[in-house]
Each structure stands twice: as C-alpha cells, then as structure tokens.
Amino acid sequence: MPFRPEHIAHFPTLAAQQPPRLTRVLAWMIGVTILIVGVILFTVPWVQTSPGSGQVVALNPEDRVQSITALVPGRVEKWFVHDGDSVEKGDPIAQLVDNDPALLSRLAAERAQVEAEIAAAQQAMAVAQIDVGRSQQLLSEGLIARRDYEAAQIKVADHRAKLAEARAKLNRVDVALNRQSAQLVRSPREGRIQSINAAAGATLVSPGDVLATLAPEKPVRVVELMIDGRDIALVHPGRPVRLAFEGWPAIQFSGWPSIAEGMFDGRVRSVDPSAQANGLFRVLVEPAPGKRDWPPVDYVRLGAKVRGWIQMETVTVGYELWRQLNDFPLEFRRPGLGNEAGTGRTGGSSESGSSPEGGK
C-alpha cells in the first residue's frame, strides 16, 4: 500500500518532525548501499595472491652474462671487437703477448734440448742393458764377480731414472707452450659484446682478469620473484602467476585477474629450498603454456624489473578483508576438501584448482 500523508497522523512525533524529502532519499540510498555491500562481501569471489618483485633472468647458465677472462699473464696487444659487436663461437676477442717477447723462442729451444736429452738417455740405457746381458753371461761362466753384475744393473736403473726425468721436463715445457698458445682469447659462444675492460689494454693482466663481458642474443627467459617467507609454504610448482613488466603499461586487479589489462601469464617453475640473504625466497616463473607470449626480448631484456602475483585460493571478498585486517596468512586448503562451515569461503580455487599444487 502506498504511503500517504494522512498516515502520518497515526505517528504524532513523526508528523511533528516532518523529515524533508532529501533525508528520506538519503536514508533509502544508505540502506540499499549497505545491502549491496553485504551481498558483495559474502558472494563475490576474490583470488588471493602472494605478491613479489624481481627481475628477468636467463634460465640456462650459458645464456647469462659471461665474463671473458685472460688465461695467461701478459698484456693486451690488440682488440678484435668493440662494445656492441656481435660475435660467434670461436671468434677472436683479444691478442695477449707475454712480458718477454722471446719467451716462445726460448721455450722451443728448451724443448729441443730436452728431446736431445731424452734421445741420449735412451741410447745410454740401451747400451747399459747390453752390458747387463754381457755381465750376466760372464758371471755364469765365473769370469767376473757378482759385484760387477750388480753394478751394471744399477747403471741401467740410473739411466731409466734420468730418462723419466727428461720426459717429465718435456711435459712441463709442452704445458708452458700450450698455455702460451692461449694468448689469443676467443669467444666461448655466440652473443654480443656488452662491455670491454679498456684498462686491460694498458696494464699487465693476470690469469682470470676480466677482459670483456658477453651477453647472449636470444636467451630463454624466466622471471625471478622474491616472495615473503610467510607465503612460501603455499607456493608450489605449477601455480599460475600474473606478471607486470617494467616499461609495459598494465592495470592489475589481484583479486580479479580476468579484468586486468597489460598483464602476462606465468607458471611457477621452482622454489628455492632456502632463503636469500634478505630473508626472502626466490621463485622462478616460466611462461605459461597456451597463454599469450611475453613481450619480445627487445622490449623486456635480461635484468628488467618485474612485479608478480602468485595466485592462490579463491575466497569471498568479506573473508579476504577480514584476513587482511587481522594480518592472517593466506588460505590453505588441502586437496579434496570442500567448503568449511562458517568460514564464508567459496568451494573453488583460483585457475590452478583447489589443490595446493595448483593443478600440477
């Protein structure tokens, strides 16, 4: 029955107040708003997320930035590349020279001398072995004493030791020659020269000193996220992840991933078993199969900053607000369990499913 002015006569106090129309409209709006908010809090789903930040890294160790070092002491005589040059595997990077320019010729002469010593030792040992045979025959005939026969054997052993020493010396000379042959520093793989240590060209370098840094051209990229230790127990390989790359415009709604813009999909690849020095845990995220490809490497290079949200269980908006106000950890649901009475949680989970393994 519609409300009529004569009805106010039954309520003298209300009739005496005579509330204005604006007040009645505002009261209706507040009531409807409370009703709508209540419906949203207890019916609208919300995807819980574990946020983290990190950077783009290469999955394979060979695809990461590598340092090209000197293998022998000396100084840089010539550079074959400049900053930004593309190189293939085996291309020359720098030419080193020893502090002694005559070192290679002296090593070659020393090697020739050692070879002559080996030849002389072999000939002397052959003659000594003949003497041993002759002494053995004379001893059997009683023409010499046993002492002479034993002296001949000792002489053979002495020549054998000298021969072994000469061969060891030859090996040392060959090692020195092989090391000096490494004076031409080559690229270990294909890539692009990121920077050159120009100071190495004017000073002496030692084995292990960095000459240049090499960056790969087409690395297999993954994202390295740092996650708080309170959430890491719920992060498992296969969990879906939403990523926002540095320099790529994006609008993120962590609880409603379907309406986010400019975001890219990923999947948890691995979780480190121990924390980093800052107390956070490292999580590697790979591209999600069947989803949109990540931005090209020209736009998102190695080392670019990334923000990520690892998707967890799906709860109601009211439950999530209650959890945030009380600073409780994320929701944990064991595989096979449905709704729990009185919690206000929905039965499903995020895109990963209800299992903590995220549909792995």
TrEMBL record:
<feature type="compositionally biased region" description="Low complexity">
    <location>
        <begin position="348"/>
        <end position="360"/>
    </location>
</feature>
<dbReference type="InterPro" id="IPR050739">
    <property type="entry name" value="MFP"/>
</dbReference>
<keyword id="KW-1133">Transmembrane helix</keyword>
<keyword id="KW-0175">Coiled coil</keyword>
<keyword id="KW-0812">Transmembrane</keyword>
<feature type="region of interest" description="Disordered">
    <location>
        <begin position="336"/>
        <end position="360"/>
    </location>
</feature>
<keyword id="KW-0472">Membrane</keyword>
<feature type="transmembrane region" description="Helical">
    <location>
        <begin position="25"/>
        <end position="47"/>
    </location>
</feature>
<feature type="coiled-coil region">
    <location>
        <begin position="104"/>
        <end position="183"/>
    </location>
</feature>
<protein>
    <submittedName>
        <fullName>RND transporter</fullName>
    </submittedName>
</protein>
